[in-house]
Amino acid sequence: MASKGQSRFRVGISVYFLLLVEVLDVNDNIPEISVTSLVSTVKEDAPIDAMVGMITVADNDAGKNGQVTLNIQGSAPFKVQNSYKNYYALVVNGPLDRERASEYNVTITATDEGTPPLSSTSVITVHISDVNDNAPCFPEPIINVYVKENSQIGAVIHTVSAFDPDVGDNARITYSLLESSKSGPVTSMININSDSGDIHSLQSFNYEEIKTFEFKVQATDSGVPPLSSNVTVNVFILDENDNSPGILAPYSEY
Ligand SMILES: [Ca+2]
Ligand SMILES: [Ca+2]
Ligand SMILES: [Ca+2]
Ligand SMILES: [Ca+2]
């Protein structure tokens, strides 16, 4: 009886184990780069610090393992600026010239401060748009043109050609005549095709009347505002034996 009663009233003892598990962070997250906005093109005359795009970085690790720095690889006229927390701005950091480089592939690297550090890269393509920053250019400052006298009216005596390294309207050239103070009005003698640069004679030149004349051709692009340059054209009329001698030369008197 007694033993039965003892077991009936036995007091259960519970033992509680408090298990404290401290989870230590390991650097198992690579920093992630996201380009949140990017301008479609950057003008080649964009000033320093002009905004190109916005970038965010994310690293889910704690402490140094999640602390990220952003860098641009190699030499590019851009830099990243930390604007707020993990937000960065990609901005212009040097002179641009579409005629030299119309596109950049900017490689951005995000590196955390873990041991060893983890990093990721992202390539951002930046397109540079044209500005009318080049005047049309003639290959030489002076052009000498030789025209036989009695040549056909309307004949092309020369074709001028200027080059403009810009693109589109900024490189679209029209040609016009500029009077030279030396030779007076030349528009009665020649004209120019504004698109092709063909210079046509408007008269049949007579060496006995005119031996040489000079004018300028101006090349103007179609940019806003337009840019222009000019070239001096010297025309030399070449003598042809078109006059029967009125008086016999002395040496032919034999
Ligand atoms: Ca990390
Ligand atoms: Ca340029
Ligand atoms: Ca240009
Ligand atoms: Ca131009």
Protein architecture, described:
The protein has two domains: 32-129, Immunoglobulin-like (Sandwich), CATH 2.60.40; 142-238, Immunoglobulin-like (Sandwich). The protein has one helix and 15 strands, in the order H-E-E-E-E-E-E-E-E-E-E-E-E-E-E-E. It has one helix at 2-8; strands spanning 32-38, 42-43, 51-58, 68-72, 78-84, 87-92, 103-112, 119-129, 142-148, 156-159, 174-178, 190-192, 198-201, 212-220, 228-238. The strands form four sheets. It has a four-stranded antiparallel beta sheet with strand order 1-3-6-5, with no helix packed on it. A four-stranded mixed beta sheet has the order 2-8-7-4, with no helix packed on it. A four-stranded mixed beta sheet has the order 9-15-14-11, with no helix packed on it. A hairpin with a 7-residue loop joins strand 14 and strand 15 (228-238). The model has no long low-confidence stretch (mean pLDDT 90). It binds calcium ion (CA) (4 copies). Residues 44, 98-99, 130-131, 133-134, 166 line the site of one calcium ion. One calcium ion is lined by residues 44, 97-99, 133. It is found in: Membrane. Residues 1-25 form the signal peptide. Residues 34-138, 139-247 form the Cadherin domain. GO terms for molecular function: calcium ion binding.
